[in-house]
Amino acid sequence: MEKPTITLTFLGTGTSTGVPEVGCCCEVCHSTDPRDKRLRCSALIDVGDTRLLIDCGPDFRQQLMPFPLRAIDAVLVTHEHYDHVGGLDDLRPFCRFGEIPVYANELTADHLRMRMPYCFVDKSYPGIPRMDLRIASPGVPFAVKKVEVMPLEVMHGKLSILGYRIGQSVGYVTDMLTMPEASYQLLEGVELLVLNALREKPHPTHQTVSEALRVVERLKPRETYLIHPSHHIGLHACVEQQLPPHVHLAYDGLCVQLSGDVTKI
Q1: 212 contact partners, CB below 8 Å, separation of at least 6
Q2: For residue range 20-45, what is the model confidence (pLDDT) as tens digits?
Q3: What's the CATH number for 6-264?
Q4: CA–CA dist 97, 4 (Å, integer)
Q5: Residue 84: which of 115, 116, 54 has the closest Cα?
Q6: At 191, is the secondary structure helix, strand, or coil?
Q7: Angstrom distance (rounded) from CA 127 to CA 133
């Protein structure tokens, strides 16, 4: 059976402050290279006719403006921090296609109900987003249409958050510091890995570039794209030259396609 084409579009690849950071005068924040302009992290994954959105941050409206309006079949939320959920209200135009399932772990779901109670009430009213909040548990797969999604636990410092494996081919992990052994096993054999790397200096809740490369060495995906860097990581062009050939620093708007045994940029 022929594999469906998978298209991964990086809507945003930056850390919580975005890049450039307000008020910063460093060379990255003043770079004219468009790859150094980073909105908050979010991605679209199209598997055949199924469209998944991973995280929905405060830049979501801006990120989706260049694209034709098309149904989003599910939103996969990694955790409750504002830079990953601050744009959920902007899903309203997509609700004309129907209610949108939003998957999150229990802690994130509880926080979303507290922050956005009008979105998750039994008695809705016209104009609010139509979202169905569903609990995703590590190691318990679920299906979005015909696409299997496997949630997996990673640690954002001491906070347990979710990464996701999409089908057999794609793994997406952001805001991770460490990964439990069980999650490594759930990611074994992925062809394309998306993985966070904040900077080179150690951080209490995020991986460094070196730590991310050690994860890559263990999992050995065909291609890896690093996301969630701060301006401290350095200029995109310089970082890209220093990475192994099969590891890349992702940038906003980058589109990667997997079709059969071929990976195309």
Answers
A1: 195, 196, 197, 226
A2: 999 999 999 999 999 999 999 999 99
A3: 3.60.15.10
A4: 23
A5: 54
A6: coil
A7: 18
